[in-house]
Structures are given as structure tokens and as C-alpha cells.
């Protein structure tokens, strides 16, 4: 049964089938080959995969991000970012990074960042004389900050898959690594800009202009504070926080930016519904696939194999990171979380690794996988938006990818980067 499950899965990926169908077909093939398990377990497991109250946070966060994007918030975030870092060498590249850090507290999605602010920032950089492939590569790299700084859709899925961590704990664990990602990309952008002569320094903005830009962006920047503050204070759960985010996004679009109307809201609802449907189909089929993996005791086999290699928690983290990085080359983020976490998370307990550090390393690793070919979803968004060649974009992103891998190593070597902030609020285990 195991060779059929894995074999059909690998073949499906190789011929380019959508990942949801690959997991569904491989699971059905394995069950049919075995013949001992009832096919009635298929709809039951598929339904159980999405029959979860915390999972309701996913469509709400998607809708909130789409509403905020439709409200025209990108302009305010760009102006605020430019007033802060626009005067530094490679200024527009730094604006790209800072805007993504700010937008990450709203969207929770790398794809939303890439398709929204990322596309606008890329065009701004290109007009200012930056190489178009570098502009697209930086926009793709900064988009990966979205799932790391809370709120995060990937973290919600992770918390549903691993009972050792909570959504609130993961949200807090992502703050420092997310900021480190931004800092690493700003350093890389500065070095590249100096070497290539990009972005001559602009005049430093006065404090009055900065304050004005901050005031315009304040209603937008308040959204992550409301979400995280409400969760930590116990005012609402993470799932309820996602609904609050939708209401807040509507209020911003209707009464602050005044760009939303019935036609735009209807369009946003349709778009969010399509994205949510695709995500939930992936979650449901991945749940079926993960159930079969557990049934076949594949997680135990992998854990035993890693345990035989070393007894060092640090080496275990490095081995797991390498394994997840390779998986991220071929498997999209959401199914990878559902498939890999039940397999790998028990290692955290077995080797005494803090669960939040282990979780953060996995989430960061899989997020980095979104800018690595051949299945780098963010790369494909940028290729589609800018009509670029994937191979040239993949080469352009290599130095930025290296900067993100340095952050991953820091998270692996220094547990406090992931656990210090949650510990302040009593969430670290």
C-alpha cells in the first residue's frame, strides 16, 4: 500500500497535476489497491479535514486581506514607507521591504502580498531604473514576510495539525523572525543596490511629512494591533479575531478610504470565495493523505531513522530543515504543513526541542519554498503579473533567497528568537 501511495503521489507531481488532485488520487489508489479499508472512509476523512471551528479563520483572513487591498491601502503604506527609508541608497527596494512588513500584519498571505503591493512596488522600481527581474525578485522575496508576521493563514493550519502549539503562540513566535526577514532583505538590497548603482539617494523627508504619512496610515496599521491585542487580552479567539478583521476592513473601505461600494464588495466576495474554496479543497485532500501516512506508520519510521542518525537536537533541526526545504521545492505550503507536521512534530518532544521553535522553523522553511522553483507559487505570481521568464527570475532571486536562509539558520541556532516573545505572554512551552 505504501509504494502505491507514494508512487502515485510522485508521478502526479511529475506530470503537473494540481496538488489537491495528486493527494486525492494517490489516496484513492492506495485504498483501492489495499482493498481492506472501506471507501466510505474517504468522504469521512475529507469532511473531517475541514470540519473545524478554528479553520474558519482562514476564509475570514483571506476576505479581510482582499477587502483591505480593494480599499486602496497600498498607497498609504507606500507613502509611509517611503517617508522613512526612501532616502537610503536603494530606497525603493527598502520601501518594498518595509511595505511588505506592514502589509504582512494585514494579509497573512504571501500570494496576497505578491499580487497586491508586490506588483505595484515592482513597477515603481522598474520605472526608477532598477532591473525588472531584480525588482520582481525582491517583490517575491518580500512577499514571504506575509505568512511570518501575524496574522498568518499557514500558522492557523499548523496549529490545527499540531496540538502542542496554539494559534496565539505561533502568531507571537513569528514577530521576531518576520522582522529579521525584513532586515536581512534590506541588507541584501542595500549591497546589491550599491554594487549595481540602483536608486540614487532621495532627499530625506522632514518629520512633518513623516508624521502626516503616519497619520494617513494609522487606521490601517491599527488592524494587526487590534487582532493581536484582542487575542492576547482574551477579548476574542483567533477565529473570532478573523471575523473582527473583516468588519474592520469593511469600515476602513467604507468610511476612511471610501473606495468600497456594492459592486467592488461583490467582486471581492467572489474572489475570496474562489481562493478559500481552493485552499479548503487542498486542506481536505491533504487530511486524507496525512491519515493514510499515519495509518501506514510512516511518521514513526521517519522519526526512528532521524533518531538513529544523531542524538543532538541541533543536528535534528538541521536535518529536518534540509528535508523540509527539499519537500518545499515540490509541494505547496498548505498541503506540506498538513502532510509533514504530523510526521515531524513528534521529534520536538523526543529531542527536547521547544515546540514553538520547531514550528517556526517549519513555517519559515515552507514559506521560503514559495520562492523556490519548480513549485514556487509566489514566483509564478510575479511571472504572470510582469510577463517574465521563470528561469531568469529564479536566478535573480538567488541572493535574496540566501539572505532568507540565513534567517532560517538563526531561528534554528537561537531558540529565543521564536520563544522569547511568546514567553512574555505565557505561551511558550
SSE arrangement:
Layout (H helix, E strand, L loop, with lengths): L1 H13 L4 H16 L6 H10 L6 H14 L2 H13 L5 H17 L2 H18 L4 H12 L9 H9 L5 H7 L1 H22 L10 H27 L4 H19 L5 H34 L2 H12 L3 H16 L4 H12 L1 H5 L4 H14 L8 H10 L3 H7 L1 H16 L2 H9 L5
What would you note in describing this structure?
The protein is mainly α and 429 residues long. Helices cover 77% and strands 0% of the residues. The chain contains 23 helices and no strands. The chain has helices spanning 2-14, 19-34, 41-50, 57-70, 73-85, 91-107, 110-127, 132-143, 153-161, 167-173, 175-196, 207-233, 238-256, 262-295, 298-309, 313-328, 333-344, 346-350, 355-368, 377-386, 390-396, 398-413, 416-424. It is globular. The protein starts with a helix and ends in a 5-residue tail after the last helix. The mean pLDDT is 86.
Count of separate DSSP helical elements:
23
Overall 3D form: globular
* Number of DSSP strand runs: 0
Radius of gyration equals: 21 Å
Q: Percent of residues in helical segments?
A: over 70%
Query: What structural class do the secondary elements suggest?
Result: mainly alpha
Concise structural overview:
The protein is an all-alpha fold and 429 residues long. It has helices at residues 2-14, 19-34, 41-50, 57-70, 73-85, 91-107, 110-127, 132-143, 153-161, 167-173, 175-196, 207-233, 238-256, 262-295, 298-309, 313-328, 333-344, 346-350, 355-368, 377-386, 390-396, 398-413, 416-424. It is 77% helix and 0% strand.
Amino acid at each position: 500500500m505504501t509504494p502505491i501511495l507514494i508512487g502515485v503521489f510522485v508521478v502526479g507531481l511529475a506530470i503537473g497535476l494540481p496538488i489537491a488532485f495528486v493527494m486525492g488520487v494517490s489516496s484513492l489508489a492506495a485504498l483501492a489497491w489495499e482493498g481492506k479499508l472501506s471507501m466510505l472512509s474517504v468522504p469521512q476523512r475529507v469532511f473531517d479535514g475541514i470540519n473545524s471551528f478554528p479553520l474558519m479563520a482562514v476564509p475570514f483572513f483571506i476576505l479581510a486581506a482582499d477587502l483591505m487591498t480593494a480599499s486602496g491601502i497600498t498607497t498609504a503604506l507606500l507613502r509611509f514607507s517611503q517617508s522613512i527609508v526612501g532616502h537610503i541608497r536603494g530606497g525603493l527596494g527598502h520601501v518594498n521591504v518595509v511595505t511588505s512588513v506592514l502589509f504582512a500584519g494585514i494579509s497573512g498571505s504571501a500570494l496576497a502580498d505578491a499580487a497586491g503591493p508586490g506588483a505595484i512596488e515592482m513597477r515603481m522600481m522598474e520605472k526608477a531604473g532598477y532591473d525588472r527581474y531584480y525588482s520582481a525578485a525582491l517583490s517575491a522575496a518580500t512577499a514571504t514576510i506575509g505568512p511570518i508576521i501575524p496574522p498568518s493563514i499557514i500558522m492557523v493550519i499548523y496549529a490545527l495539525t499540531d496540538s502542542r502549539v496554539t494559534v496565539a503562540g505561533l502568531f507571537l513566535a513569528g514577530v521576531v523572525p518576520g522582522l529579521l526577514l525584513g532586515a536581512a532583505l534590506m541588507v541584501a538590497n542595500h549591497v546589491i543596490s550599491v554594487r549595481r548603482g540602483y536608486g540614487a539617494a532621495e532627499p530625506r523627508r522632514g518629520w512633518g511629512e513623516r508624521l502626516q504619512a503616519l497619520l494617513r496610515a494609522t487606521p490601517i496599521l491599527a488592524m494587526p494591533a487590534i487582532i493581536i491585542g484582542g487575542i492576547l487580552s482574551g477579548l476574542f479567539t483567533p477565529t473570532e479575531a478573523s471575523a473582527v478583521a473583516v468588519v474592520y476592513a469593511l469600515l476602513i473601505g467604507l468610511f476612511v478610504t471610501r473606495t468600497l461600494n456594492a459592486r467592488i464588495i461583490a467582486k471581492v466576495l467572489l474572489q475570496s470565495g474562489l481562493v478559500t474554496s481552493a485552499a479548503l479543497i487542498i486542506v481536505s485532500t491533504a487530511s486524507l493523505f496525512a491519515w493514510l501516512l499515519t495509518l501506514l506508520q510512516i511518521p514513526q519510521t521517519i522519526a526512528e531513522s532521524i533518531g538513529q542518525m544523531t542524538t543532538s537536537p541541533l543536528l535534528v533541526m538541521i536535518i529536518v530543515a534540509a528535508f523540509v526545504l527539499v519537500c518545499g521545492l515540490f509541494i505547496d505550503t498548505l498541503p506540506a504543513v498538513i502532510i509533514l507536521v504530523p510526521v515531524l512534530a513528534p521529534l520536538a518532544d523526543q529531542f527536547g526541542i521547544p515546540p514553538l521553535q520547531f514550528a517556526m522553523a517549519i513555517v519559515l522553511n515552507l514559506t521560503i519554498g514559495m520562492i523556490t522553483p519548480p513549485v514556487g507559487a509566489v514566483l509564478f505570481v510575479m511571472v504572470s503579473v510582469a510577463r517574465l521568464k521563470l528561469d531568469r527570475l529564479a536566478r535573480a532571486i538567488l541572493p535574496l533567497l540566501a539572505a532568507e536562509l540565513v534567517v532560517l539558520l538563526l531561528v534554528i541556532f537561537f531558540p529565543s528568537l521564536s520563544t522569547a516573545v511568546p514567553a512574555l505572554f505565557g505561551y511558550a512551552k
